[in-house]
Amino acid sequence: MDKPVNHRAWFMVMPVVILVAFSAVIPLMTVVNYSIQDTFGNNQFFWAGLEWFEQILSSERFHNALLRQFVFSFIILAIEVPLGILVALSMPKRGWTVSLCLVVMALPLLIPWNVVGTIWQIFGRVDIGLLGAALNELGIGYNYTQNWLDAWITVIVMDVWHWTSLVALLCYAGLVSIPEAHYHAARIDSASRWKVFRYIELPKMNRVLLIAILLRFMDSFMIYTEPFVVTGGGPGNSTTFFSIDLVKMAIGQFDLGPAAAFSLIYFLIILLLSWVFYTVMTNVGVELPRREKES
């Protein structure tokens, strides 16, 4: 006899569905509507079709912003993931220092994004900033408002300072879940520190590393507040990432149609790359243990 299905649970889900519809779906449909139409004000719209998408995809401005965004995200992942793993491996696993380390590591994550940008904007100023003034006293011509390389270094160091803690805490959560018996067996077999990391610690961090890389990629690819506060996208357009370019197009130039098409392309790129990251890392995480068992 089939068990009767109770559909009353859907009443508990409906408030969430309605909230998501108002906060995500409806604004998305509004953006889609703007992306295929043109307006000259007075709430009058004219059909444009795929014109804005073709214009954005063929523009040099879009290609330059995309290149800057890819370079920035690649540098961020290349620095923060290894550094976060190294910090997690260095953190204590027992004793009163564990709580102290966790609190210290979590402090940068509690600071709002605009405050982080303001801190580093003042910190890097050559007249009153501790970093900028100190570097210039040492004879290093540092000025993030005039030199594109200094601006890039400032934004990258700021992001590393702000978000490496997230990677470290996630990796630490994977490390503390490893039973002590694994380390005891490694000591009996006289395993080197590299082999302990390669065959014991890294497999346990596989899942949390997947989460860390996905979170850091998506966040670095959508970064806006911190670099905008520090450099405003300058000097020139050297730090004008995707999000900053989109805001300039939508608010600065008030090109709503092209900006809507830009935002949809932006969304699809993030969605596609996140899916690729997830698929590749999940397959690697499944294949490596399988090959080790077979060997």
Question: Which key features would you list for this structure?
Answer:
MetI-like fold; globular; mainly alpha; 2 strands; single chain; two-stranded antiparallel sheet; 295 residues; 74% helix
Question: Overview of this structure, please?
Answer:
This protein is mainly α and 295 residues long. It has one domain (65-287): MetI-like fold (Orthogonal Bundle). The chain has 13 helices and 2 strands; from the N terminus they run αββαααααααααααα. It has helices spanning 10-35, 51-57, 60-90, 97-110, 113-123, 130-137, 148-176, 180-188, 193-204, 206-221, 225-230, 242-252, 256-294; strands at residues 37-39, 45-47. Helix 3 crosses helix 7 (148-176). The longest helix is centred in the last third of the chain and has 39 residues, at 256-294.
